[in-house]
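LAB NOTEBOOK - FOLDING QUEUE
OPERATOR: T.R.
BATCH SIZE: 2
PURPOSE: Compare the predicted structure-token outputs for two unrelated chains run back to back under identical settings.
PRIORITY: normal
REVIEWER: second-year student, initials M.K.

ITEM 1
FIELD SEQUENCE / FIELD STRUCTURE:
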Amino acid sequence: MFHILQIQCTKKLADELKIKTSNEQIADNEPLYSWHAHIFYYNRKKYCIVMNNSTRYNFIIGSLRKKEFSQFSSLVKEGIRKNLLAEGFAEKVVETYMKKCDDVNYAPTSERSIISQINEMISATKFFQENNEADTIEDKLDEINRFNNKFVMLTLPETYSAESMKKALIKEVLL
């Protein structure tokens, strides 16, 4: 069974991508295949944080230049794959998930609680950056992404988003 990889963009990101989104574009999609995305700036550079609707698993892409926004869906897909593997997920599980992401759909954000958690992760990222010796976020991007997924999320049954994602992906692969 194939799913649409739904990227729900904030208005700020949709403007940067030069796309129009409307509520009609929100697909009745499995939450595990739906991700919210938001652009933020740090030291005058553009970054994007992407968060899974179901598990709150998240990662940062950046720094992004204008030409990279035209390949945004590919960047998100590659970001998902790269971060899940870096998190220690089994390659078979990751590849099975990625193969099910047949098509990409852009839609507006739909859950304020996810936006709130995205903003919390941006604050955590900035805190991490300011308390570690790196000139840019890119210098410690993998470390930041691991750190953010070990951040306590009280809305999750597993507390940590990395654990929630691992459990959800294993369940998905076994179905």
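ITEM 2
FIELD SEQUENCE / FIELD STRUCTURE:
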Amino acid sequence: LNNHSNHSNPEDPNSVDIMNLYIKNLEPHITNHDLNQTFRKFGRIISARVMTNPATGQSKGYGFVSFGKSEEAAAALKEMNGAMLGNRPLTVAYHEPRK
């Protein structure tokens, strides 16, 4: 039986959210649906969203994909960091919650 938790410790200054990926260098036309379609092969997606300017609705060029399991997020991170989406290579990293 293992009792270790998959969740990062909020007390740890180096903590990252191991189920939530930060995706940047997105082309302006990439939508939430595109992110979902691109990352769903790695597992069950809880949410996929492109951050937009609330006033204009335009993409800010980055977003987040949250998986149901840390292993799924790890596989997506490994395969998709540097992968092309449209004409740009993606930068994929674990989301680091703001302090």
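REVIEWER COMMENT (ITEM 2): The chain has one domain: 20-94.
FOLLOW-UP: none requested
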